[in-house]
Amino acid sequence: MTQTTGGGCLCGAVTFEVEGAFDAFFLCHCARCRKDTGSAHAANLFSGSATITWLTGKAFVKGYRLPGTRHERSFCSQCGSALPRTDDGMLVVPAGSLDDPVDVRPTAHISCAYRASWDHDLHEVPEMAGLPG
Ligand SMILES: [Zn+2]
Ligand SMILES: [Zn+2]
Fold this sequence. Notes:
By secondary structure, the chain is mainly β.
């Protein structure tokens, strides 16, 4: 049975479906991924065999490659949300862009030497079920 995972951007203009399994799931803490996502780390799923079908809004999908590097991102030109892209035949899917659950656990935290100064012992930070206040 082929596994199908649906996703899309924040504004809803772009929707897609990924068909197939993911091979790896990396949480990258490098400075480029932190800038790119505005967060502690990127969370990207990788697949060498899965295929993507853009259901709606393909015209809104834009790409950016940092000059002189292999760092690239794909995003909705209307809302800026991260979207999947293909890199050397490898499908790269930002985990947060998916609406359906995935049965893969992260493979590893990578580029940990470049973590943000506050990005340590996060399991010790209080957790709230909803918003504060
Ligand atoms: Zn959007
Ligand atoms: Zn990175």
